[in-house]
Structure formats: structure tokens, C-alpha cells
Specification:
By secondary structure, the chain is α/β, with parallel strands linked by helices. It has 3 helices and 7 strands. The protein is globular.
């Protein structure tokens, strides 16, 4: 059996959870020389579904990507069918400070609310 590279091995957190250090990026859309050109949901549905089937449990998002709802729906379906438990999944996101929204005082609540609005 092949050895898992050190950088891909789960990291044990202080609460006992294991965190997968390699995440699946949820930026599905068109990038151009001058930046992001928009979210393509059909790529999100396919990509996230295949990532879950491949064993990814860490999903990297950003408000700029616009993929929170697609991620939330895919995860919700996996939770509802018993394929996954919420405690098995990590969702990371970034705050859009450059968009002029300032630093959120409650980023976790904001990201959770966005995921729940699907």
C-alpha cells in the first residue's frame, strides 16, 4: 500500500477532531487576466459531488465564488441520506475585505447563515 505523503495526513485538533489539510476548492467559474468573471453552477454541482465521492471532507470557499449554496445543498443531501455526518466536514471561507464590506464581527455566523439559505 502506498504511503500517504506527510502534508496530506489529517491533523489532530485540540478538540480531538481530525482536519484534512488538503481541501477542495469551490471556485467554479471563469477566471480572466483581470479577475473573477462569475460562478458556473453546473461545474459546482459536478465538482462537489465528485469531491465527496473521492473522499474530500475539507471544502474551501469564498463569498466571491458564489458557491456556498451549491456546497450547502450537496452537503445537505449527503447528510440527509446518511452518507456523511456534519462532524466529518470542514468548511473554510474568506472574508471579502477588499469589497468594502469591512471585517465581519461574526464570520462564522455569516458563513453558516449563507450555507443554510440554500
Amino acid at each position: 500500500m502506498a504511503q500517504v505523503p506527510m502534508e496530506a495526513r489529517p491533523v489532530k485538533l485540540s478538540n480531538g477532531s481530525e482536519f484534512a489539510p488538503i481541501g477542495f476548492g469551490c471556485g467554479f467559474g471563469a477566471w480572466a487576466g483581470d479577475g473573477w468573471k462569475g460562478f458556473r453552477p453546473e461545474l459546482g454541482w459536478l465538482g462537489i459531488t465528485l469531491a465527496l465521492k473521492s473522499g474530500y471532507r475539507n471544502f474551501d470557499t469564498s463569498l466571491m465564488y458564489g458557491s456556498h449554496r451549491v456546497l450547502g445543498t450537496c452537503l445537505g443531501q449527503a447528510f440527509a441520506t446518511g452518507q456523511l455526518n456534519r462532524s466529518d466536514v470542514f468548511i473554510t471561507t474568506r472574508s471579502p475585505i477588499r469589497l468594502g464590506l469591512g471585517v465581519p464581527t461574526r464570520p462564522r455566523a455569516s458563513a453558516s447563515r449563507t450555507l443554510a439559505e440554500q
